[in-house]
Amino acid sequence: MHQEIRVIIVDDEDMWLRSIAAALNDFGYTVAGTAATFEAAAGMLSTQDYDIALLDINIDGKNKGIELGKMLSAIYNKPFIFITGSTDSHTISEAIEARPSAYLTKPVHPASLVATVQSAINNYSNKTTPQPGGNAAAEQNPFFFVKQGNKYKKIDWNAIVYARADQNYTIIYNEADKTEYYIRSTLAKTLTMIIPPAQRSSFIQVNRGEAVQLKFILELSNDEIRTAVRTFSITESFRPAIKNAVTMIS
Hints:
Helix content is 36%, strand content 29%. Helix 2 packs parallel to helix 3. A hairpin with a 2-residue loop joins strand 6 and strand 7. By secondary structure, the chain is an alpha/beta fold. The chain folds into two domains: 136 residues, Rossmann fold (3-Layer(aba) Sandwich), CATH 3.40.50.2300; 93 residues, CATH 2.40.50.1020. It is built from nine helices and 15 strands.
């Protein structure tokens, strides 16, 4: 089972801080620490074990989040996401100079949060500094990252043969390296919120606990779907949707 990505959150609005922390936990991230002031955040950056930071630009009534971002770039060499509300052009210019890995706009939607964290890791790995307003593009990225030691493995959703439920996790099989990976999320949430919108229609649920990507189906009968990896049973309630989906791509 892969390690969970550890996130720290800095926001001086308690409602948003708790909301973002809850959403991250729901989607399988570990909240490594939270802070509501510049001083507490600065201390946390140097003492906590974390992979990425979410920083509200406006801390303590000022743009102290930008200072924290500059510290992360210059001293700690960690990816970070700026959380923005309505900001003026001067603030945005300052934010760009801090070289964030992504931006997130309030109000924060859980699906956008997950996509933005994944996009930030990708941008950081590629040494790319995005422009504000790139959330829509982030949600279309056909990949996600899993943590392996001190590195992140990039996995393309287009290479996922199946997804299956395993208690509070979803297990996905990556055809590219013939390996199963774990996502701490229910199957329903994985299919409707974690898989990027452009890829969601490619997956069809075949029974209560399993879904298959349509392009990997080799044979379809009334009761079974066969892929090169394994065979899946079809239950009655999912049969009509499967037949409609297969007809659409034939």
